[in-house]
Amino acid sequence: MTARSDSPSAALYRGMDQPTLERQYNARASVPSFDVEYAATVRDSAQVQVRCTDRVSCVYDERSGEMLDLYRTGLGSPVFLWIHGGYWRAGSRHDNAFAAGGLVAQGISVAVMDYTLAPTASIGEIVRQVRTAVQWLVRAEVTRGLHTERIHVGGSSAGGHLVGMLLADGWTQDFGLPDDVIGVALALSGLYDLTPLQHVQVNGWMRFTPEEIAAQSPERWIPARSHAHLLTAVGGHETDEFRRQTADYAARWRQAGHAGQTVPMPEYNHFDIARTLVEPDGTLVRAVRDAILSPPARN
User: In what residue span(s) does the BD-FAE-like domain sit (predicted)?
Assistant: First the structure.
């Protein structure tokens, strides 16, 4: 673990001391209604699992044995991969099934994945698994007949970070994939610069090294060319740092000349913003659907 300053009032990142950083990056503490929010997430996920009957559970990564649930909507449908948050140490495909609800109703097949949680897995291993899930969706027998030339992706919080690592430069060739394999990318309340996390409680289970921070911070790996369409959103009731991280990453993406759009979600917090994906006519579902149906000009 990176050592903290002996003085809790010392500026560690962007002029903020350790207690301030702790408040800014403690997502759960920023939402007094967290227990209610989580209960609603579990309820909505259970309902989606019952309602969406064409669901198959598959191992996508033989090395780790990790699985995903694929909710299919019919031949020719696009495929969207949902990556859960939980600061890389919590969450599962079961309590994130809500993410399939609205998109399946719009005719989009959705895969909701597990990954090995920290501290069992390092950040690099988690990123490898997420990239393997994309590779599996392109090649798997159960996706035959679906439109897998592009895989659309989305995630919230730590999942938003992992979306950023799917947009990062230089990984697709190692997985035998074309560089334009990612289509629409929905990044919610993500963590795109890992630097401040070495100073807060998250580092207790992540134990970031300087090399990992450099290699796994999406804002440092924005490609010179990209065919992806980035949709970013952050709740208006989130902390200043979560809002800044999203704004900075979206700005850097657009400055590189890539297609990007910010979806305003002013009435939402760090947790209920993602759950709106259960709504077939919700703001985020419509944004994803429209971006898939109307791909931008390529850069």
Answer: 77-166
Fold of 32-293: Rossmann fold (3.40.50)
Q: Taking phi first (over 0 means left), then psi (-120 to 50 degrees means alpha), and beta for anything else, what does residue 189 get?
A: left
What one-character-per-residue DSSP string does 286-299 give? HHHHHHHHSPPPP-
What ranges do the domains of the chain cover?
32-293
In whole angstroms, what is the distance from residue 216 CA to residue 162 CA?
A: 9
Helices 34-51 and 98-105, interaxial angle, to 10°? 50
Token couple for 44: 């909505």
Residues 149 and 184: beta-carbon distance below 8 Å: no
Q: How much is the pLDDT for 1? A: 41
How far apart (Å, rounded) are the C-alpha atoms in residues 19 and 201? 10
Each residue's pLDDT tens digit, 170-184:
999 999 999 999 999
Q: Phi/psi at 271 (nearest 5 deg)?
A: -110, -40
Contact assessment for residue 168 and residue 221, using Cβ atoms and an 8 Å cutoff: yes
Q: Is the dihedral of CA 189, 190, 195, 200 positive or negative?
A: positive
Element (H, E) at 132: helix 123-139
Q: Which of 46, 213, 242, 251 is nearest to 123 (CA)?
A: 213
Say what the pTM is: 0.95
Question: Distance (Å, rounded) from C-alpha 8 to C-alpha 148?
Answer: 50
